[in-house]
Structures are given as C-alpha cells and as structure tokens.
Amino acid sequence: MPLRTAANVVAASTPPQTRIYAVGDIHGRADLLSDAVARIEDDLFRRPVEQAAEIYLGDYVDRGPDSKRVIDILAARMVHRRVVCLRGNHEDLLERFLHSPDAFGPWLKLGAMPTLISYGVSSRSEATRADDLHRQFHRVFPRAHGLFLKCLQPWICCGDYLFVHAGIRPLLPLDRQSLADLLWIRDDFLKSPHDHGKVIIHGHTPVPCPDVRHNRINIDTGAWHSGNLTCLVLEDTSVQFL
Questions:
Q1: N or C: which end of the chain has fewer CB within 10 A?
Q2: Rounded distance, CA 206 to CA 203, Å?
C-alpha cells in the first residue's frame, strides 16, 4: 500500500536511520490489527531501514469483538519485533477489575462486556454479577496477558516526538505528569496551542481522520466502529500514513 503524506505542518524528526510506525486505538479489532501488521511488514520489505520500531498507543481492549486476540497478537509481536505498547485508559480499567470486582461499574460503562466475552466469560447471576464475572475472568485470564499488562508503558520519547495514549497536561514537565492525565486528558490538552517541547503522538479521542497539528498528531480514528485503524509512519522529517 502506498504511503500517504500529511501536510507539512510538523517541525520534528526521528533519530537518523530510524523509522517509527505508530498505531492508534485498536479496541478489540483484531482483524484490523492483523491488516496493519501486514502493511508494516510489507513496507519494511519494500523499504528496508536500519532501525524500525512499532509503537501502539493503548486501548487494545473493549468495544470491539476480539480483545483477547488483539493482546495475543501484540504480546507475540513484542517478542519478535522492536515493539512498545503504551497503557491506555481501557487497559487500566481492565487491570483494576482484575484486582477488585468493585471496579466493574466504571469498566462496564466503557465496553467491558465484549472483552469479557472474548475471553469466554459469561454473565450468569444478576445478583452477584460483578463477583461472578470477576471469578470467571481470573480463571481464564492468561498469565501471558498479565505479563503483557505489566510491560505497558505510560509514554515513550523518540527523537522530537513523545508518544502517549491521551495527551499531557500543558506547561507541566514530563516528570510531573500524572498517570490520570496521560490516560484520560482531553480538552485541556486538545485545545492547547502551546509548544510542548515534543510533538505529541496520541489517540484516546476519536477523529474522522488523522488530526495533524504543529504540536500534536491524533491517530485515533475510531477503529472499532469506523473500520479504519490508522498507522502513522515517521522517518527523518516526514509524516506519512500507511
């Protein structure tokens, strides 16, 4: 698939001889993830580069039909390729529920049931619903997926770019950012005109098409319902899409 070049509004670059593939919010669409991985492999075959990295921006689970398969693919990819997976707010909700059934309410509101179903969990008793689901989930949740969750990073920098799930608190140094903002922030970040010191590559807030601005690039294109999973390609000073 040919690369599509974005408008030249981003003054940033990767380290020399380095290409970065950044993939937006997947939300249980293992079919779209498999297609994105195939496109990345094809691009690397056609255009070899000394250093190539893949960065996935979080929200691998919920809403779409096959969250378990998404994590299977990404966990295997981390073993065989130079891959970084970031933590999204939906992974945070999943992990909270693994620790306590009391965390089910907030997760349910954001699409927990398709994830549980993908693991073979079903609802049986309304009276003990959260406790029952919690017990079932613990029994079937693979150890490898628990290790995957432990490997998720809150952010990563590379060259002039910072990759994070939701965004950052403007004008606050990176070492003072809260995890809550990194996973959940919206308007205060999205509406900020400030130079953040790095160009922020993020997802979390769905947009119809990639939103390329001077200080940030949003690549969450609502894959679970739009069928469009965005893969951003950064190399030297170019900003392109597969």
A1: N
A2: 7
Domain ranges of the chain: 4-241
Q: How many beta carbons lie within 10 A of that of residue 130, not counting itself?
A: 17
What CA–CA distances, in Å, run from 116 to 2, 110, 121, 133?
37, 12, 5, 8
d(CA 163, CA 175): 14
CB 199 within 8 A of CB 12: yes
Q: Are 64 and 223 in contact (CB under 8 A)?
A: yes
- 4-241 maps to CATH 3.30.300.20: no
Task: Name which of 162, 211, 202, 203 is nearest 9 in CA terms.
Answer: 211
